[in-house]
Amino acid sequence: MPEQQTLRLEDSNERITAYIASGLTSLNDDQLAIVELVSSFLSECCGEADVLVHQPILHTHPKDHADLAAHDVHATDFARVIGSDLVIAIGDFASWGAGKELVWAERLRIPVLMLVRPKNGISRLVTGTTADFEIHEWRFPGDLRSIWNTYHLSRRTQFEAHRRLRADRDLLWGSTLSRLLTAYHALSQTEQQAVGMTAQLTTGRIEELLAAPRAFAEASLDEAIALSGALGLASQAILPGEHAEHLPPRALAGLQSAAALEGWDGARTVGLLRQAEVELAKGGSRRLVFNAAADWSASRRDDSRVPHPSRSCRSPRSACTPSASSPDSNRPGRSGPPPRCQQRDVPHPRRGRQSHLDRRSTSHRAAPRQARHQNPIYARP
User: Fold this and answer.
1) Contact by Cβ (8 Å): 17, 85
2) Topology of domain 3-171, per CATH?
3) Which of 53, 186, 201, 227 has the smallest count of CB within 10 Å of its CB?
4) How far apart are CA 80 and CA 257, in angstroms?
5) What is the dihedral of CA 224, 226, 231, 234, to 10 degrees?
6) Shortest CA distance to 85 belongs to which of 113, 57, 119?
7) Where are the domains of the chain?
8) Within 10 A of 186 (CB to CB), how many other CB atoms are there?
9) What does the pLDDT look like over 64-73, one tens digit per residue?
10) Is the pTM of this model over 0.85?
């Protein structure tokens, strides 16, 4: 998305905000003059009621702002509509753009007040909408003021409630947007294009939905499900709030034991915890059961996305000096430090890092060999 849209989304949540929708591009000079006068008069009426107004005729006028690209106009108007608490539509002149703005408002439950002069027909597709939609006819500027004052007084409480709802959307959808952004930005450009093809969404639409929590709130449920599915996330990942599954106390106790046995630091332990929660949120792609320390150790060895432990020993002395308690230190014909595969926290060249649990789980196989060399019966003469 253009950089300007991010700035335009930072609207004030302290005041009720109105958006004036009208036709601009296909109008002649006389029609533009009427729209400009009506828009200015409505802005004055709204200002008297302490309502902030956005007039597209002052920001995206096709003649006064001809240098604006089409996607900049779309980004500006989209950000302003989703940041409004009501839409006032001037319905005297048909407009494709105003029709799209009414759809944006309908998706976010924004009430619409349409003002039209007598004998100017409105499409039955618009008048038959099931959204919060009112149509009023007017002849003179005094009629506009009267209509607005009555409408504002009867709906002031609703506007205030929507203003709070608009402010809460940033918190409500923030975690959902964070999960989708993390999954989307982890992909290459080719993979992002594949996600768009799978979800049947253009790259521009995906970036628009992920631009801000309010923008994602405008998305249809079908779009949100399609995008999360294409990213490999479970359907519950698009629900607002923190809906990732949490590990039970038994699993957390297993992680604590594994961290103590393996000598993991805090960053590595927290990374494993977050990764396990992500796996569970995805539906458990590996179907791991994190109930014991051995499960966490196995997950740590099998996962290549978590940074591997240092290949150097924590204690130089333990790596270079043979231990007196080592079974191989008393073996005939062997001197020097034990093999690297038996050193603590050192990866095996083929099997990877051996943990305490690994050595303990294979102790029954190593015991006969150790007993053979330690038993005096088998000692060499």
Assistant:
1) yes
2) Rossmann fold (3.40.50)
3) 186
4) 53
5) 80
6) 113
7) 3-171, 174-238, 249-302, 316-371
8) 10
9) 888 888 888 9
10) no
